[in-house]
Amino acid sequence: MSCVRTRSKLRHAIIFAGITVAWLVSIQSAGALPLYARQTGQQCAACHNGFPELTPYGRLFKLNGYTFGGGQSGYLPFAVMNFSSFTHTQATQPGGAAPHFAANDNFAADQTSLFYGGEIAPNLGAFAQVTYDGIGRVFSWDNTDVRYARTANIFGAETVLGVSLNNNPTVQDLWNTTPAWSFPFVGSGVAPTPAAATMIEGGFAQQVGGLTAYANWNRLIYLEAGGYASLSPKMQSMVGVNSPTNNAIEGIAPYWRLALQHDWDRNSIEAGTFGMIANVEPQRVSGFGTDRLTDIGIDTQYQFLSDLNSFSVQASAIFEDQDLNASSNPAVGFAANAHNTLRSYHVKASYYYKQTYGVTLGIFHISGTPDATLYPNTSGTNSPNSTGVITELDYIPFNYGGPDFWPWLNMKLGVQYTFYPEFNGVSGSAATNNNTLYTFVWVAF
Amino acid sequence: MTKSLPMAHKSAHRFGPAGFVREKLGVAAIFTALVVLATGIGNEQSAGQSSAAAQGGPVTQQQIDGTVHVCTSCHGFGGRSISPTFPNLAGQQHDYIVAQLQAFRDHTRADPHAHTYMWGMAAHLSDAMIEGLAKYFSSQPPAAATPGDPALIAAGKKIFTDGISDRGVPACMSCHGDKAQGAGTIPRLADQHPGYIEEQLTNFASMARANEIMHMTSKDLKPEEIRALAAYVGSL
Q: The whole model's pTM is what?
């Protein structure tokens, strides 16, 4: 017991020391994703509509490999981000909301991240993130996207050609409709969340390596294709994401993305499709074949951006087909059915006044085949169905530059309320008990 | 799918991952080392570039093309922009482009959009690069005219050609030319986004964009007169 306590103390001391060093290094010499503001010399609002949503220019910055320069690029390309929060759930969570947390009304230092990014070499740039999870109390690598991009003239039009090496399917995407960068951008880590999600909604986030090639023709057509492979358990341990319950992709899982974008006046509209097909060893169990998961998504986004009023709406639908040959094998016993389907819908609309005051309404709905093993519940419906309505108010005081002594400071103060008419296949008070009030302070510098 | 998905789902909806992993605390140390290493490399690169820019040596056509590509992200292909937040540059007067880029670089042009976008963009432009960019954009075919309300355009034309004598507003034409084509450091206004013209006249009036002549010219204009002028020059 005392040995465990000593180890835990040592771990916290080392983690604390790591954060302090990272913070000191960055504050002495670096700026903001603030680091991008530093590299480009531009204010946050140039690339972000109520960050992290991207403006048309922000998309081109990412598309071109994070290499556009201009600002004080002699600084170290670091940034630090932290968000901390208070969570209240409608019903208490007996036994604690999470290890080390009370049953309700929890303050948490949710996440502290160190970013590295920007231009590494001509045409080569990066977005990389290392995160300390203040709830799970672990360090791990986080969203990472390293890309090389060049411009060519194809059929008489500008064509940006590039490759992305990344660790999370859709993290490289340009629009805020695909899972890695869609609303809600933050959520409580100490509140219940729906159990079911499709594979592409973070099912392999940070546990895989992917290489994709893309082309953006005439700022009109975006095409991308590539594949993802699971990192070995040893590699996952090295980057802090290993778990015995992680699933493993057998071979390489193909990924695709097609999008059309049209801009006019202050408007930008996009419509597209994305998807991924993977043969999966559930929880790395081998010898029973694989499950085959097929995700097909469709998405659309509209933005109206002006200095005074900015409005945007994003919507996506993901259809997942699950052939659970391995999971449903009685010797494995992870699923009751040999075949399931799962659908995930998201829609969100937001309004920002002067890029400073924002209100966002989001609705999501998950539905699919009941499965007594995958989605057991007390009411006996064994259904994965959940519906959530999320309202969020945001205040971003420094989108046009921070205080004089540190102009790259960015901050977002938010209040988010999630209402669940349906939760893991149950409705009524069993669902609304999960309603969550989440207030957060999000700082990047 | 499998039982581990709920965990993954949770992480997917945060700004990054998390997970309940209890692995390796050495991860922290490895990453700090990797990031510091990578940063050193990146820093050397960028420092080299910025010092090269500051020296103001000659630039190659390839470097100019690369910078034009960055400019066109906002100002559109060939300097014909889509959003009125960003002015058309195609066909703009060469000397005006040079003067503005220098003013962004020196922070002597300080209207809000200059601060948000152009201070950074122009920070490391050498005089040779500014010359290359001005040459490129001034020689591009101008953007298409913006059609507008004929009555508004007519009202704008009257102010543009005659001024408003009882309030001492001079005819715009006397400096900007009869076709609003500009000359030297006096900008071309023809086919500019009306929204951009309105914003600049407002900036001159409030001194957000410091220019004594334009301040005197615009300070007595009423909002509807500014709209009319913008509609007229945009329609040319």
A: 0.87
pLDDT in tens, B13-59: 334 333 333 344 455 566 566 555 544 444 444 433 443 344 467 89
Give mean pLDDT, residues B178-207: 97
Query: Between A and B, how many CB-CB pairs are < 8 A?
Result: 280
CB contact under 8 A, B11 and A202: yes
Among B77, B111, B138, the domain-final residue is B138
In a domain, B18, yes or no: no
Q: 3-class DSSP state for residue A22? A: helix
Residue ranges of domains in chain A, CATH in brackets? 31-444 (2.40.160)
State whether residue B144 sits within 8 Å of chain A by CB: no
Nearest by CB to residue A264, choosing from B8, B43, B82, is B82
**Same-domain pairing of B50 and B67:** no
Query: The domain containing residue B164 runs over which residues?
Result: 150-235
Residues B162 and B202 both lie in one domain: yes
The whole-angstrom distance between residue A28's C-alpha and the CA centroid of its chain comes to: 29
Among the three residues B7, B36, B55, which one is the final residue of a domain in this structure?
B55
List of chain A residues whose C-beta atoms are within 8 Å of the C-beta of residue B84: 265-266
Query: What tens digit of pLDDT does each residue of A272-325 get?
Result: 999 999 999 999 999 999 999 999 999 999 999 998 999 999 999 999 999 999
User: Residue-wise over A148-177: b if at least 16 C-beta within 10 A, else e?
Assistant: bbebeeeeeebbbebbbbbbbbbbbbbbbb
Distance in Å, alpha carbon of B180 to nearest chain A alpha carbon: 22
Predicted local distance difference test score (pLDDT) of residue B34: 57
What CATH number does residue B76 fall under?
Answer: 1.10.760.10
Beta strands in A59-123 (DSSP E): 78-89, 106-121
| Count of structural domains within chain B | 3
A384-437 residue pLDDT tens:
999 999 999 999 988 777 787 777 888 999 999 999 999 999 999 999 999 999
- Other CB atoms closer than 10 Å to residue A406's CB: what's the count? 14
Tokens describing residue A92: 């208490």
